[in-house]
Amino acid sequence: MTADSKLYAGGDGKISALFNHCEQNSQLEICTENINELIAGCSESKEKLEKLYNMFKDSIFAVAFGITSDYHLAEDCVTETFVRLTQVKHFSAKKGDGKGFILTIARNVALELRRRYKREKGSSDIYIQNYGEADKTVENSIYINQLLEHLNDKQRQIVILKCCSELTFKEIAKIMKSPESTVKSRYKKAIAILQEKAGADD
Q1: DSSP E strand boundaries for 30-159
Q2: Which residues are within 8 A (CB) of 176 and not within 5 positions of it... i.e. 6 or more apart?
Q3: What total number of domains does the chain contain?
Q4: Residue 110 belongs to what domain range?
Q5: Number of neighbours of residue 150 by Cβ within 10 angstroms
Q6: Tens digits of residue pLDDT in 85-101
């Protein structure tokens, strides 16, 4: 978790501990790779696409799960995100923001999947609680998802992008098309809510 996250999460570590498994999965050597070059060439190179997949699959899943609250939809989002990456025609390897670009695609795909599922089911309740045959981290995922239900949609997305994808507030603001100050205030309020609810659970 970044310094900003620690600042807002408080010293007791309750909230940061909840996202430990997300952070462990995201601790890949992303900075040592030229993400932009990989994106620019992934449509023609299976090797480059595979590198991107290994770098971002967990972050994309976290973003998608935070939006859809559904294990299978989040998995579909991971697949669809990389399909769309291979279809990108115009991306500047010199000027592009690779990480933000990928997670923006992931967020848009997740929102599309959520709207489609909601329309097909004809329900206003998007908290599906459908986790499928998840791995051993699913118990933590369920608990985290239960806590995240106390947040509104934008607060939940910001927390996921910050804590699991480790984006800066500036990057999140760009993805969500909101002022950075608004993102910070929503994050601070969200963390306060999570701390209160986690404390109540304890």
Answers
A1: none
A2: 107, 154, 157, 158, 161, 183
A3: 1
A4: 3-201
A5: 15
A6: 999 887 877 777 888 89
